[in-house]
Fold this protein.
Amino acid sequence: MAAHRCGFLPPLFILCALSVLTVTWTQETIPLGSHRAAAADSKPTDTKSVAQTTEQLAVEQRQWEATEVEEATSAAAAVSKQDNSSPEDVVQTSTPKPKDEFQEELVVRPLHSGDIYASFQFRTLWQTDFTRERKVSHYGLFPKSLGQVISKFSVRELHISFTQGYWRTMQWGQPFLSSPPGAELWVWFQDTVTDVDGTWKELANVLSGIFCASLNFIDSTNTVQPTASFKPLGIGNVTDHRFLRYATLPREIVCTENLTPWKKLLPCGTKAGLAVLLKSEKLFHSSFYSQAVHIRPVCQDWQCKTASWELRQTLNVVFDLHNSGQGKREWSLFKMFSRTLTEACPLASTSKIYIDVTDNPEGEQFELSPATALLSQAVVLGDRRTFSVYDLTQQITFGTVRSLNVLMRWKSSEGDMLRPLLHAERYVAGYGLQTGEIHTLMYNNHPYRSFPVLLLDSVPWYLRMYIHTLTVTSKGKDNKPSYIHYQPSKDRVRPHLLEMLVQLPPNSVTEVTVEFERALLKWTEYTPDPNHGFYVGSSVISSLVPSLVALDTNSTWQRPLFSTFFPCKEESSYFVRVYTEPLLVNLPTPDFSMPYNVICLTCTVVAVGYGSLYNLLTRTFQIEEPSPGLAKRLANIIRRMRGVPPL
Amino acid sequence: MTLFTLLFLLSSCLLVYCINIEDNVGQFFSSGHTNNWAVLVCTSRFWFNYRHVANTLSVYRSVKRLGIPDSHIVLMLADDMACNHRNPKPATVFSHKNMELNVYGDDVEVDYRGYEVTVENFLRVLTGRLPPSTPRSKRLLSDDRSNILIYLTGHGGNGFLKFQDSEEISNVELADAFEQMWQKRRYNELLFIIDTCQGASMYERFYSPNLMALASSQVGEDSLSHQPDVGIGVHLMDRYTFYLLEFLEDIHPASKTCMNDLFKVCPKSQCVSTPGHRTDLFLRDPGSVLVTDFFGSVRKVEITMDSINLTSVVSHRKEEPAANGELQKEVYSYSDQLPVSEIIHQ
């Protein structure tokens, strides 16, 4: 803050000074301006290999102004590349290299129980290839914090999610992307990493700073290395599980402080586009909230010769009907998010809202306003769904009021929900604080098809599992898994890891039971609130579920984002991951006020015992005559005066 | 003749001007700090200690409003009240009843939360002895020109402050930590505010220079809470911090209020306890210390007209044309998510 000039300055002096200053200032702006232009020159990307400086500057400026046109031409070029069968070199030099791309979409799906499920997906594509060991210093739409994390820790894939609440599969169906309660982090490292464990710990610490979460509690006691689950979701030909690490923190709380840095990763922030709707007061007042960040390498085009980095930020939220006020069933963007949309993100190439109207073909269940003519069909979770589409990049979507508030009003609520084909539950059985049993139930609701599931269980070391008591039963009979991998725990070093490949027979319940014993922790290892209990992370069930309609395995262009997350290799089944509930077990907890009580008791006993003994040994007794009464004392005084001996 | 008078005028004006500059320079460099940091700690866990979290968040809100950015604030909250399942209005923490003021806000960044708020972590943050992989947002990267505000709240007693119901920090440890900070030149001036029962006992043992301390109650007195909210069911704030928040709401970044006014916050009639302060270790006179010296982030700027030559940008673009020529022979593909036969034969 400049100091306040309260003195009086002679106008002549000011004038002279000003004139001198203006002369020198104009002389300086000219060299500064040319310096800025020179800096801009060295910035342009790989597209300009040989060009004049002025030409570069002019082209750069044109590109900066007309980004939408550029996107359209590059998309057109991509489309033409597909149809073109000319050799590679011609295609490479004639078309410009595609630039970073950002897409955003929101899918709204009314659930059968009256609740509503909203899923945001933001996808940033970054056209650069890290595997070439080049130092990248130019970040466009891709956030710099994550780019530096990827390059410093040689990350090949990173998936992190924060969830509050538990997804109720039987009432709500399957989510587009499931996540366990708490925080979950799994990472595939590049094969150039030598010390995976050390890098993993540092990465967890850095991510805890980026996302304001206590991820630094991830260490060897809750990290596992799955051997068959969690195959990479991005491209890559090598899958050596030595470079995979998985950890989950079921106790982790999600709140606004995790949403704030997540929002900062978006190119438009919360100023424009769909992210305007993300207000924490509404989002956390919900039955289920989950935010995730997924980074993986993907194919740049259908030929898949070059890779580019994809950053997907997803946010899933389920709003409760009765929590949000009125009794009648009516949902709108304003009721869900307390905001309406006014524009799309200018940096986005596509910005769309999809409303699931599959159960409402003729408009008999609910009425959707404002009306939209765009309809789209997509195969998601093995089912063909119809969506009404609002394209936010078209000005006409916002109408005359310049704001979009999608409103759905229900007239009747009939129809049943399709039962989800795969569903899982888990609970702790037993009594007392010594032993217990973990039961995991997996439901296969398909009437005639059986399919394989891969169950991953990671149990902390203080629940000592007895694997010889492991039983897997379906329909009352023993069901032998075709693959078991078990790694026993080591006290205070690593947890139990159990992976099994089980074939679920059709229309059945498979129960996996294992007994455990609770350990007594050292008194420093208890949390400040040990009577709450200790959490056991969710089990992960990965499976290939038969789909109702044939899936498209070919190209992934022109498909909405929510249907392109898991790569699909087969037409008849789709991949899905289901998480069970986390468990809360009580460990034998000592009474922490006992040290104080013991000290008091011991000191009292010592004082009483020693004191008595000391007194007994050292006390001497003297005979003492009792003092006479008052009358006798008076009589003694008179006698002394008379000279007579006292009484 | 006229030239002489003109020269005389000019010289007298120059003299006046120089004196003014001296005065302004004196004011400009009076505080001696160039950056501001804040360490705000709430040490209590459990829902009925909602007011301690609200205390810390109201100071956080004031400090952020007056200019200290999130990167310079280390916020430690021992429990989560906003998204607690007992909170009838999730993602909010209120300081005034009838839900008038939400101090949690929409862009809060908590650096240490939950079980991370321990005595060890607090002392490590103060002294800077953190493991190498600690992220920047969790570090107190202050230097010898930093003014630091430290705010502690929770349950305390005579000579100690309780952390999360399981450990304590004593006033001797705290004094030693500040001495370590002084010897490592980690602060220019430090303002320590504590709102607990018998808070004055915590600053009795300080012995490092340039420390100013404020407490909400004397030894033998309890700090009381302000008002409950019927809707939420708990007491929302402590009295001292409530009146401190009201005082700070009137401060703006250019305000000239000084520390003596801060000492008068919450007299015995409002607070029931007697707030105390300690300034004997502070070198400047508290009457000349601005409140924004600690609560705000007032940057002093020196405008210069010289041009500075930046070093040339590292040019590594030369490698690009060579790379464009080669063709990618290998085709990438996505991995199979559940290769059953592969797994069985593993």
About this structure: The two ends of chain B are 108 Å apart (CA to CA). Chain B touches chain A through 80 residues (CB under 8 Å). Residues 4 and 303 of chain B are 34 Å apart (CA to CA).
